[in-house]
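Suppose you are handed a protein chain with no further information: no name, no annotation, nothing but its sequence. What can you learn? This example shows the usual starting point.
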Amino acid sequence: MSMYKRKFAVLVLSAGLVLGGCGAEKAQEPAESKQGAETVHEHGSQNKLANGDLQEVTASAKELPTFLDGKSDEMRTIYALAAQEKDVLTWIPCYCGCGESAGHKSNLNCFINEVKEDGSIVWDDHGTRCGVCLEIAVESAKMDSEGKSLTEIRNTIDEKYKTGYAKPTPTPMPTEAN
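A reasonable first move is to predict its three-dimensional structure. Written in structure tokens, the prediction is:
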């Protein structure tokens, strides 16, 4: 891991975020609110999903979405960190209920819905309203910066969030090849 990435993770962790969770009511949203195939597809466009999430396309991970304008520096930093850590967060479940309420497959989807072939990013604003999502992303990035394996990170997150949180996203377990 690069020195910049480590410093970035430490910066995020030292920010001392005190965030609330998405709440159990999100996990109880009806199935029809799930994210559908009608997501955003053009650069600069935004799309509001049935579940209330806003998605926006930017040219690359270096360009943050405009829905972060006016958000705290910590929030913007966590979104940038999620883009840097996409290869980790793909294997980490979220425990806020977004698997059922938003159709998310991993913690990455709380921030990034899709990385397109041309490198453009379809961002999701779900993480802006959910402390559980933010906390899992930061904890995962911290463990990655400490040299933990994907399996170690996944097991730590699963153990910490298995009780008192919503059902996890249907995220596959990483294999040694990942």
